[in-house]
Amino acid sequence: MFKSIRRSTTLLSVAALTLGMVSTGLLTSSANASTSTPGVTAKTITIGATVPLSGVAASYAPVSAAANAVFTYINKHGGINGRRIKYIRLDDCYDLAAYGLGCTAGASTTTLSQNQVLVAQQHVFATVGSLGTAAEDSVLSYLKQNGVPQLFVASGSRDWNQPSIYPGTFGFQTSYVAEGKIFARYINAHFAGQTVGFIGQNDDFGADGLIGLTDGGVSIASANNLNYNAADAISGSSSDLVQDVQTLQANKAQVVVLDSVPGFTSGILSIAKQLSYSPQWVISSVGSDPTLVNNVGEVGAISLDYFPAPTNTKDPWVPWLRKVLLADKADFPTFTASSVLTGNDFYGAAYAVAFAETLKAEGKNVTRAGFLKALKSTTMNTPAITPLKYSSSNHQGLLGGVIATLPSNGGAAPTIVVEPNTTVFSTTNTKSSPITVSRKLDITTIPNWLK
To answer: DSSP labels for 135-200?
Structure first.
């Protein structure tokens, strides 16, 4: 979902849930609102997002809540170039409402229908931080045909990095492929010659992660290349996981890479413990957030981190974010000075800061074209520990991170991620793209206007 987007206990991306095209009667609706830039007035700019606020994916809600807390903080300090940011978040239940999984928005609610509300009724300037691969794939064409930028999609899919086809669509987090390549480098350097196993989600999450591993030079025998059914998120079945762990144990896999969401990560770790199986775990950032996995078996696991550890007092963004969340009693009513900052909090805050910095860079005259131009030419200081810089050829967003380990917590499950060193790894989705290694962790400063 840290440090990338953290997925809920039972939620997976279900590729089959994409939707068809919307009727042509809605395709020009935003243009009918005004001859000026939709969502922009002299004093406000209105943006929106479709996110799961109820149902099985409700644990994602803090991501957009943290973004809204940042916007609220900015508004209280004068806004951006005299404009306040209005952030409309609509519940799309991760496009799973029809399955009756606790969605309060109604069974007929879809990601597409909620985007139609944002575009045709609310006339948003852009969507910002909408969540989920299958969900956001379902509105790629609709938003493009309406000229609405689709910014900072919360997913590591390569689908957001297609600038020649979708020039207004931008991802945010390090891609699953890039993460896999970085894992491969680490495995080859530290566990050379050991048998590697893989359990991945059977959609783009697992498939792209595996591509990264193999592109990076990790060899995984077909018998040790396993996956679990994404639809099990709906049925709650874990039979695949038991069989997968048993297989890897029988095949003596010494290093096991998991491209799994937190609930399935925890399930795999629990099954392994019952079987007295303890390989070196390497867990995708998507499924390693210790506060969501909440499993003592995660101690010693390796992951990728691209947001600071919440205990890193040297990073100015940590106390800043705590201050921002403490001030927002509407979105974080129970947050206190001793509350644990999570990856979800950093994720939402980071893309909110990116939006604000780009808006400020564009200047007083705001247009969609001008914003996208500024987005591709501005290097942004955000809570991320790797630089955020888009270009005409890179719409993915972050390109790497640091290798992190999950520490012991007195016999309990880990609660934080610790970066053991300051080596930063960066790469792209392209197989031939090398991995850049920096021995210095550049902590970005908070812009004065944002303090």
So the answer is: HHHTTHHHHHHTT--EEEEBS--GGG--TTT-TTEEE-SPPHHHHHHHHHHHHHHHSTT--EEEEE
